[in-house]
Each structure stands twice: as structure tokens, then as C-alpha cells.
Amino acid sequence: MTTLKVSDLHVSVADEETKATKEILKGVNLTMNTGETHAIMGPNGTGKSTLSETIMGNPKYIVTKGDITLDGESLLDKTVDERARAGLFLAMQYPAEIKGITNSEFMRAAVNATRPADKPIPIRTFLKQLDHNLDVLNMSADMAERYLNEGFSGGEKKRNEILQLMTIKPTFAILDEIDSGLDIDALQVVSKGVNEMMSPDFGVLMITHYQRLLNYIHPDQVHVMMGGRIVKTGDDSLAKELERTGYAGLRAELNLDVDLVDEDVPAGNGGR
Amino acid sequence: MPKAAVLKKDPALLESSKFASEPQWLTDLRQRAWSKIDDLEMPIFAKINYHSWPLLNLTADPGINMSIPQTVVNESAAYQFASVGQIVAKAKLSEKLIKQGVILCDLATAIKEHGDLVKQFLFSKAIHFDEDRLTAANAALVNGGAFLYVPDDVEIDEPINLLQFQDSRQTTNFVNHTLIVAGENSRFKVLQRLATVGETENPAHVMVEIVAAAGSYVKFSALDSLAAQTHSYINRRGYLDRDARIDWTVGLFNDGNTVADFDSDLVGVGSHTEMQTVAISTDRQTQGIDTQVTNYGAHSEGNILQRGILLGASALVFNGIGKIIKGAHGSKAQQENRVLMLSPKARGDADPILLIDENDVIAGHAASVGRINQDQLYYLMSRGLTKEVAQRLVARGFLGVVLSDIPMAEVREQMIAMIERKLVNGQRTE
Ligand SMILES: Nc1ncnc2c1ncn2[C@@H]1O[C@H](COP(=O)(O)OP(=O)(O)OP(=O)(O)O)[C@@H](O)[C@H]1O
Ligand SMILES: [Mg+2]
């Protein structure tokens, strides 16, 4: 069993223009073991992507306090590629597009990154796995030969993140809004891909706004994040409760002092 | 005004360049060029300052090494022509091509055996000896090169491959001149591969003239990888007659300072050129590449596509010049010059220059000088690629538009291998 542990994590970002720093995460605690499935929900702008990018090692996010450890060893002084090779994977909310590099050549380089230089994966083995994964995800073979995310639709990009996940086979995967922008059929397909990964040696952390994802990938724990902290942890039923009460309800219940981006906005006809 | 390189005019230098028992017309040409060298200026290329380079540090007492290194012998297997300095290691055409009248040999032999042909085209159509100090120096001091002649209506499928080594095993002069003549309606492909053997510091003067007669189509590729200690001047020029076409694909992977002057003169009505260049500068290297298309003929078309990558504290300048002469009605000139800097200390430049003297033409340009996109780098690294591998992938992707356009698979593969080598070496010295 492997354990990924986030303790009392404080993270700031510097505004690219003004250079002023702003604290986003204000003491996050989270422990995940392989074999477990976790979900994080929370209002827009609360720091969910910040948490996932910080765990992955995005240099834009500055850890001011706390630690992130993998089996007790701190990851903070490791670069993003070192963390990836240590077994972390982040399916990004907004993956980059890169012209001139094909999807399959990139994935092969990624697979080889964790292998000794003189023992690259045999091309046939790689292609066989690729074919299988494409099949699971209902992706056509030419998607693998297209340039990396270049001109991919929103849904295709999400699928492509899961294709990479299945190809690279990390120990821990963080899926940042993998369900956003997917139609119901695509959601099932993507979930199938993630579920195929499930094993005692694999742990997953899903970030989502919608309870419906959790119907397809069942979480052991659901965490709610508000104002840069995890404010409540529960099981499956917590997601359903949130669906009913909204974040404002939870805020009242927990007596929290946080701003919600969309409060006081009339919901139009549906809000009657 | 920077102090320009000066040639020390020792008569022994001129004498040492001559081919054995060369014809009088050539000796006369040398003499005329020699006497003009001092009066002519060094060529000026916008933003490329190469004037302090020892390009004219030629020796009056050049050494000649007759032995052919094993590496050259091994490499020459895939080539029809191979030379080391002035020594010819190989010149072998298939029987079929010889029967069709194709000629491939070194320049000295060509002058001896096909003197009239060479005289008709050497320094007469594409490059003129009195353009500037460097063309004059080449005309006066040429001491090697190749000659390829493809007669009218001959079409050749297999590429003709030329392997030319600068011999820097000793102090000597590398004043090379390759002449390619494409007869009317001929079609063929040529690859020129330039490299250095030996560690001595010698400048390199390399010229290629392609004279493309009416209706001919030449696909010319070059892969240059001269040594770090070599300062090089490379001039490749095409002269295109009616409906002729030349596609150039040049990979500039020299390790030393380089000034490159690539031109196509679209003289004939309906002539057409595609000029594509890929360059990589590393370490403390400076490379200036000046690519020009001149539309003289009506309905002529010239497109320039250049992509460059910089590492270390290197510099790279791409000038793209589109010149349309009055009378070139309905002609087209497009260009795109882009450079990508992988290191904060590198200095890149991409300058489109349009000089247009006619109204009903289509001309356009795009240029950019950029740094590597950090989000792309992060994304690749987040999948476990090291920074170096990720950078190389982005760099290759950036060059991809040119690479995917290279018509010959073998050249494309060689080019990719050389890019990889050059990038890896460049990263090592970062
Ligand atoms: N690179 C950055 N530069 C400046 N501000 C940032 C940066 N990244 C995040 N922020 C800010 O930090 C806060 C949290 O952003 P984050 O993306 O983590 O929220 P989120 O919970 O993922 O929201 P969403 O549900 O909308 O995806 C926001 O106010 C955001 O504007
Ligand atoms: Mg987010």
C-alpha cells in the first residue's frame, strides 16, 4: 500500500502582472491510500485545481506551509517530472495543446520515461496496449496520430487525458473535472476507463461539481472544500446531501465565514 | 563601420588553388576575380555582423592529406559522390544514368573532360564572380567541388547524393564550388551533405549553383554539419528558367559560426521555388541566414519557410527577402520566418523584408521570435518526461511543419537524427 498525504498545506499564487501574492489554500489535510477512491467537491474558485496542481508540482503554486508526502517522503523539493515518475498523474482541467508532436509519440516517450534508457518499451507491445485503451475509450485510431490535443474538442481532450492515464498507469491519479463538458455517453466511457484502472495498487482523487459522476465511479470518501480548506468529509451520501442543500446550506450548517462566488445571483425562472 | 575581413593577397595562395593543368579560361577567370577582391565589399546581410570572423584567413601553403579516413569510406556507401577536401573518395553513377548522359564528377575533372559545359554555366548564370568580396574569393581560389549535369528530358527517381567533407586534419583551404545543371524538362533530386574531418581551424567557403533550364524540376536538400572550429560562408543559388522549379530543403546544423546566403532567381515566366530552412544554434554560436527570392519573370512564385531553434548563449538571425522586379506581373512571394529560443541567454531574430516594384502581385509574410511555452513544457513534464526530453519534443514539434514537408523519407530521417544530436549536444553545454 502506498499513501499520499497532504498536511496543513498552505499555498499562494503570485499574480502574473501585479506580482502580488494571494493565499489560496489555507491548511488542507488529506490522506489517500492506494485502493481507495476519493472525491472532492466545492464551489468555483475555492482551490480544488490549486490543490491538484500543487500536489503535481506546478511551479506557479508556492507552498508556504505544510507538506505533501508519498509514503512519508516529502515531494516538495521534487520537480513535476520527478513526481510523475514517482507515480503521480494529474488529468488536467485545461490540458495544453502542442502542435507537431503526435499523441502516440508523446505517450511512448512518457512510458519510456520510467524505464531504463536501454530498455524502451517494444513498439509492438506499446501499440497493442494503445489499441486496447483506444478501444475502451471509444476513440478512433487516428486520434493517436493527431498532434497532442491540437484542435481536440473539449470532450476529446478529457478522453485523451484518460487515455494517457491508462497508458502511463500511475500509482495515484488526480482527475480534475474529468466529467465537465462530457455528454452522458462520454461520461460512461470515461468512467469505464477509470474503473478499468482500479486495483489495490491504484488510488484516485476526483474533483467534480456533479454528483452524477459518482454514480459511475463510486467514492469511498467525499470531501467538501470551501475557502481553501476541506470543511467536511463523508461518504457517498454527502454528495447527495450537497446536491440538495447547496454550498450555502453547508456553510450555514458549519457556521463558516467564506464567500461564495455565485451567491445572491438570482437564478432566473428556475430559481422560483 | 566594422573592420572587414581582409584577404592577404599572396600570389602563392592563388597559385596553390589552381587545378592541375587547368584551361586558360579558368585561370583568366581566377585572375580577374583575384584582382577585384580588394575593391569589392563584403556582402551585407541585415542584422548579421560577421565582419570580424576569420573567413578570409586562408593559407598560402595549404597542406594536402591524400589518405581517406575510414569514417568517410563507411559513410560514402550511401552516396554516389564523396570527397575529402580536394581528394575524391568516390564518384560512381549507375550504368543506366551514364548511358542517359548524366555526368557526376569532381569539379577539376569536369573542367578537364567537359570544359565547354562547365564554362557555359560556372559563374555565368546563378552566381557572378564580381558580386562581392566573397564571391570573388571563391572564383579566384576555388579548389574543389562537384559537377552534376542532367541532360534534357532525363528523369531520375533515385536521389543523387553528394558527401563533401572539409578536411581539417591540417591547415588548408576549403573553397568548394558545386555546379548543378538541369537540362530542359529534366527532373531529379540531389542531396548535399557537408561535414568536417579533423580538428584544425580552417574557414569554409561553400557555393552551390543550380542552373535550372526550362521546365526542369530539381529537389535539392542539404544537411550541413561543419565543425565548431569552422567559420563558414555558404552560398547556394538557383537560376530558374521558364517553368522551372527548385525545391530547397536545407538543414543548417553546423557547430561553428555560419553566414548563409540562399537565393533563387526566378528569371523565367512561371518559374517556382520553395525554400525551406531549418537551423539550430547552440552554445556560443552565431548563425545568420539570409534567404532571398527574386521574382523577375511574370507569374513566378517563390515561398520561403524558415524555422530556427536556439540554445545556450547562441544567436540566430533569419532574414527573408522577397524582391519583386518591375514586370513580374501576377507573381507571388510568401514567407514565414520563426525562431524559438529554448534558453534565456539566446538571441533570435526573424526579419521579413519585402521589396516590391510591381502592382498585381501577391506577397505576404509572417514572422515570430518566441520563447518556449511554459504551459506546454509543464504539461509534458507532468507525464514524467525530463525537462530536456520535453524541450526536445517541443523543439521538434516546432520544426515539424518543415520536416513533414520534406519529400524524401531518407533525408527526413537523417534530418531528424541530426536535430536530435544537435539538441542533445546543445543541452549538454547549457
Ligand atoms: N495561476 C494563478 N494565478 C492567479 N490566480 C490563480 C492562479 N491559479 C488559481 N488562482 C486563483 O485561485 C483561486 C482558486 O482557483 P482554483 O482554480 O484552484 O479553483 P477551483 O476550485 O479549481 O475552481 P473551479 O471549480 O472553477 O475549477 C481562484 O480565485 C483563482 O483565480
Ligand atoms: Mg478547477
Automatic annotation (TrEMBL), chain A:
Keywords assigned: ATP-binding, Nucleotide-binding
MF annotations from Gene Ontology: ATP binding
Domain ABC transporter: residue ranges: 4-252
Pfam families: ABC_tran
Family, per entry: Belongs to the ABC transporter superfamily. Ycf16 family.
PANTHER family: ABC TRANSPORTER I FAMILY MEMBER 6, CHLOROPLASTIC
Name by which UniProt lists this protein: ABC transporter ATP-binding protein
Native organism: Lentilactobacillus fungorum
TrEMBL record, chain B:
Residue ranges of domain SUF system FeS cluster assembly SufBD core in the record: 170-398
SUPFAM superfamilies the UniProt entry points to: Stabilizer of iron transporter SufD
Residue ranges constituting the SUF system FeS cluster assembly SufBD N-terminal domain according to the UniProt record: 77-161
Highest taxon, organism lineage: Bacteria
Family: Belongs to the iron-sulfur cluster assembly SufBD family.
Protein name: Fe-S cluster assembly protein SufD
Annotated organism of origin: Lentilactobacillus fungorum
